[in-house]
Design goal:
- Two copies of one chain form a homodimer.
- Chain A has helices at about 20-30, 45-50, 75-80, 85-95, 110-120, 155-170, 195-205, 230-255, 260-280, 305-320, 325-340, and strands at about 5-10, 35-40, 60-65, 100-105, 135, 140-145, 180-185, 210-215, 225-230, 290, 295-300.
- Helices cover about 45% and strands about 15% of the residues of chain A.
- Chain A has two domains: about 1-125 and about 290-320, Isopropylmalate Dehydrogenase (3-Layer(aba) Sandwich); about 125-280, Isopropylmalate Dehydrogenase (3-Layer(aba) Sandwich).
- In chain A, β7 (about 180-185), α7 (about 195-205) and β8 (about 210-215) form a beta-alpha-beta unit.
- In chain A, the strands form two sheets. Chain A has a six-stranded mixed sheet with strand order 3-2-1-4-11-10, with helices on both faces. A five-stranded mixed sheet of chain A has the order 5-6-9-7-8, with helices on both faces.
- By secondary structure, chain A is α/β, with parallel strands linked by helices.
- Chain A is built from eleven helices and eleven strands.
- At the A-B interface, α8 and α9 of A face α8 and α9 of B.
- Chains A, B: Its main location: cytoplasm.
Chain lengths: ~350, ~350
């Protein structure tokens, strides 16, 4: 296998495509010698944008795809019908081993469906969770699952804990990551039916460091590195994080600008404040990997800019170097053998 | 029925009992001519504390209760065994019509269990939700249910929507409140099994103004006045609100104090900032009512101080004046008759 990580980037997906996608790709290849990016999308448009940039032409290549799946399109239909869309073309490159990873800021549903249908799961993996990194007080945690797998079963959650631990240890670099399950109280007897069923399975599961229940109040404080929950709850957590954060920051801005004196104060405090808030910004940490597939798929925020794209592309390199696919395959197989 | 609202206050419950409970009670009766507060707890301790205060002795009375249910105690056992606890004694006053309402900052589980077991539900009410008010960008929304009813059914959620609408309209004063169901996307076809089943029932339900799905990102922006969800999700939302808010404010403080210049700026901006953040503080809005009981029960935050206690006691007066119990009874009966 080559030492170069080949990444298919959906150059047409997201609010800021193609400009920010292209900028992010150029930024990433200029920083990393071990990466090649395929910009997937409408060739003419991409070529025009790319001409404005300075980069090694060996390391960025355009792959034509004439169609675009819009954010509002029903995913299953879109994947089936738009065979020449940037998402379908990029995913097929991963399936055909022409690329190691696919990155998109486009239609989330289409990315999730495409991953399962076009790339396929690792043998033994029951569900393929989408696992974004969320900012915490002093670092970052992996929230798994935030994807489309609502009404999951306990066995799915155990696999999420295992795959998430592998990712946090080898891609994010947290040694022996702490795994917690989202619950409504700290005690083992608390919870809904799914959590009560999953709790003892996580206690017994090998290869993870299970610390028990995590109340959502403790998530931003970084109580666990891998936060396990089913996708409905994960989606609520992810979006509420964003909602509370943005409303609070907006209110603080209004407060700072409400009087003349406070405006002066705000001007003085701004640089220091900005750098602290940056550490609580999800886009600093790159996109959300979809785990358990035969190849890597990463979904970035719909409003991703060049920096998030560049950070995500770097994540892909680490994912390949650390052989995350193989580690997940081994972990799931060991578990299946143990169960036989 | 008397025009005075009689409220049994658990003077022993919560982190700041009894001092802040007593201060809150004195504050409230000194402001409201139409309220009488029974301080339920250890008589000797309460009498000593009360002596420090100035108030009309006709309007505050001590009711002795020798036991205290601790925050960590298993609720069902505690309610069964500690018959002379402030929670059990106060709840029985409501059951025996000696009080119109019971307010506690103590063991949440015991308050929830006690409400159901000792006071009992209004006929036709299937579950009794706990419904805190949460701050939003420009006001407040009712999050219903955050109680102990995990794994709820769709018919429960419809009743939550109806009871919550009555509360928001007549106690909080929001005319024709908007009702939304917590979901992972804006479209009707999205969601888990419970949400998909509940959505059409809410569309058909009479007496409410259903606006559809609310993604959690939109909750802090105030998209709906009544936010319907089952208790597991509600609990996650409530505690995450608190967690993200407190971590973010802590980070902002650190940022403001990180350099000399920013410290000067922070000092200038402080008063304006403080008043904005206050509007995003849940304790400003009083406690969480438990709806659908034959009498009112309100749970305040465990760390409630005098101000929250005072605001909660005022809420109880409004609850009685607006005859919320009767309105809920009528609404549920109408629905039952319509279904027959």
């Amino acid at each position: 296998m080559s030492d170069i990580t080949r990444i298919a980037l959906d150059a047409m997906g997201g609010d800021n495509a193609p400009t920010e996608m292209i900028k992010g790709a150029v930024w990433a290849v200029n920083e990393n010698a071990d990466m090649k990016v395929f910009l997937v999308g409408k060739e003419e448009i991409l070529r025009r944008e790319l001409q404005k940039q300075t980069y090694d032409p060996e390391r960025i290549e355009i792959v034509n795809a004439d169609e675009v799946i819009e954010t509002s399109e029903p995913p299953v239909n879109a994947i089936r019908r738009k065979k020449d869309s940037s998402i379908v073309v990029g995913m097929k490159m991963v399936r055909n081993k022409e690329a190691d990873a696919f990155v998109s800021a486009g239609n989330s549903g289409a990315v999730l469906v495409g991953g399962q249908v076009l790339i396929g799961k690792i043998k033994g993996v029951e569900r393929t969770p989408l696992a974004p990194l969320i900012p915490t007080k002093d670092g970052v945690s992996l929230l798994i699952d935030c994807g489309a797998n609502v009404d999951a079963r306990s066995s799915h959650l155990v696999q999420f804990a295992q795959m998430g631990s592998i990712y946090m240890e080898h891609v994010v670099g947290i040694k022996d990551p702490k795994v917690g399950i989202v619950n409504i109280g700290a005690e083992e007897e608390k919870g809904n039916a799914l959590v009560k069923e999953t709790f003892p399975l996580l206690k017994e599961a090998k290869g993870i460091r299970f610390i028990g229940s995590v109340e959502s109040r403790e998530i931003p404080r970084g109580q666990a590195d891998v936060i396990v929950c089913e996708a409905f709850v994960g989606n609520v957590i992810l979006k509420l994080y964003e909602g509370v954060g943005s409303v609070l920051i907006q209110k603080i801005k209004e407060g700072l600008l409400s009087t003349f004196i406070s405006k002066v104060g705000a001007a003085l405090a701004k640089p220091a404040l900005k750098s602290t808030l940056k550490s609580f910004d999800a886009s600093e940490h790159g996109g959300a990997p979809m785990l358990g597939l035969q190849g890597l798929v990463v979904k970035t925020h719909g409003n991703a800019k060049a920096k998030e794209v560049r950070n995500t592309l770097k994540q892909c390199v680490l994912f390949k170097k650390q052989k995350i696919d193989e580690k997940i395959r081994e972990c799931i197989q060991n578990r299946e053998e143990a169960a036989e």
